[in-house]
What does this fold into?
Amino acid sequence: MTAPQTAPDHAAWLRDDLMRGMPHFITTAWTPDQRLFDTEAIAEAWRRIGLRSVHILSKHETGPALYPARHRNDNLDRDFFGEQVEAYVKRDIRVSAYYCVGLDDWAGGMHPEWCVRDEHGQLADTTFWASPSWMCLSSPWRDFAIQELHEVAEYPISGFWLDILGLPVDPNLCFCDHCARAYSDYAGAANLINMRGSEEHWEFKMWSHKRFVEDARQVLRDHGRDPTVIFNGAGAPFFKRYAEPFDGSDSNSTECHNPVLMGAIGRLNRNSGNPFELLSCSEQSWVHTVLKPDTLVELEAFAAAAQGATYTVGFTVTPEGRFSPGNIDRMAAINAKLEEQRDLLRGATPIYDVGVVSSRDNREMREVIGNVWRWTDFMRQGHLLHNVLPGFHNLDAQRVVAIPAGITITPADRAALERYVRGGGNLIVEAPPRHEPSDGPYFLRELLGLTFQG
Ligand SMILES: [Zn+2]
It folds into this structure.
């Protein structure tokens, strides 16, 4: 381990769970009759699969809230969230409340002035999310969302799971009036537009989002709940559109919908010593009626658990208001197989031959992500025992360290590499290695035996 374990004791369950459920019940056109939603049948499905915790929707990006929200005018006539919490908790299944922070079509429609905007007042491009309403956390949306989290925390939940708590990586976002005022308060007399893309601008964004996480945790304390807060993307420095490099999540949490991500993020997260979950779906996507093949789901479950993660798996509620019976049976069988191997999956310590150095900075990863993933996929396909390192840490644990092109190497990193090589370590550096400032000699010239000839 390269970092002390930071998870508080109250969240030990985050580390223990091998599999966790995440159902999606969204008011799409193919769910024509919401009255069919069968809370008891779904609660029994969780029990049969053997899950001890689930993340369930309290408010999705499309709205409406799935509980009777006090300040919305589009509430449903049934408390889907509350019914589920009661039925699951009765069966000793922990419930974390999913709440979508970053997107809210209802609030964005009612209050377009609360949305993320560029310097010219234009809305951000959100086609990636299929939702037009990216809500700005400097705007009154922030207080509105915290107030709704208070409403959700009145139910006996075990924490929040916050989605799309994404600060804009793009230096052209956000320049709404609320951000302009908030930045002046934060930094004194400075003008936000003058600070575009600066380190101070970046720090302001991270401060704003980290503060939201801290306030959400305080909401749970105010209601006497376990103060466990998880946000999607925590510990994953690869999102190009938004980023969560700030601290505060009790568990790292990453959607891993392909084998490269599952392997790379699993290895990367394990280095932190924190609990972490790797997410994917038992169907083709979060909301889909076609099941993934049995072998693929089983492979995903074991790939996640073997890295020390919890496999958090999505379940689609069918138009009949239940889960697919076949899906329940096979997920019960897969979870039983995981539990049979619990001692191996939780008690073993991995060994590595090769360490691939990754960046921890989302802004840098926008440039080098392809290089990092190419190296990890090369290791994966070659069946090499490899780690994905969060920077230049714990180098001695591997016989070989590979540095993908473009990764920043500081003088302190160079010193660590020199110690590593002097101690018998082997280094692979992908060209072109960086130069000293002003196109000077190669930064690693002594380690690599390079002579700069102009
Ligand atoms: Zn803003």
In short: The mean pLDDT is 90.
